[in-house]
Amino acid sequence: MSQTANRVFIVDDDERIRSALARLLRVSGYCVECFESSEALLNKADLTSAPACLVLDLQMPGMTGLEVQSKLNQLLPIVFLTGHGDVSSCADAMKAGALDFLVKPVCESLLLAAIDRALKRACIECATRSQRAEIEERVSHLTRREREVMVLVLRGRLNKQVASELGAAEKTIKIHRARVMEKMKARSIVELVRLAEKAGVYAGDEA
């Protein structure tokens, strides 16, 4: 695992539990930040600069674990660790995307294994977001006409068909198409399709 992929945020309103978890994780080589509430996490933590995971209590004063999960589920993997677990809460958390749902007191090996899985997923998700942002940046540099040409190319149109639909000369379309391929850094139509899909541009979009 990357040396930067060892950040763990702990959110628990019980100071003794926070301290015990922090000691265990730091001894195990993780970089740990503790917060007494979900609000403190949201206000103070740097959630996006590097891969990280969240060890989250379920029942706390203020915002509950499930409530903060709804805000952060797309940003980092979540491992619930609670002394108030029930089947319904577990089902809700897992359905909403939690990676694990553990009950206190937890076996150290189970917790460490869950955190390891969460950080591995965090690395994958971080890389995916970074790649998507890079491809979206390429799309943003396309002119309106180049984007129109790209959408029609994604639909499988030939140059002469694109020219007909856009009311342009085929020679002009060839130039636009070449610029699309260059700006998107695509070496083939297959690669262009893959890149466009990752950026959320589909053949069904308006040309």
UniProtKB/TrEMBL annotation:
Q: Check the record and name the Pfam families matching this protein.
A: GerE (PF00196), Response_reg (PF00072)
Start and end residues of each HTH luxR-type domain: 135-200
User: Keywords for this entry?
Assistant: DNA-binding, Phosphoprotein, Transcription, Transcription regulation
Against PROSITE patterns, the record matches this protein to: HTH_LUXR_2, RESPONSE_REGULATORY
What is the protein name for this chain?
A: Response regulator protein TodT
Q: Its domain of life?
A: Bacteria
List, for all copies, the residue spans of the domain called Response regulatory: 7-119
Q: Which InterPro entries match?
A: CheY-like_superfamily, Sig_transdc_resp-reg_C-effctor, Sig_transdc_resp-reg_receiver, Tscrpt_reg_LuxR_C, WH-like_DNA-bd_sf
To which species is this protein native?
A: Paraburkholderia gardini
List every position bearing 4-aspartylphosphate. Answer: D57
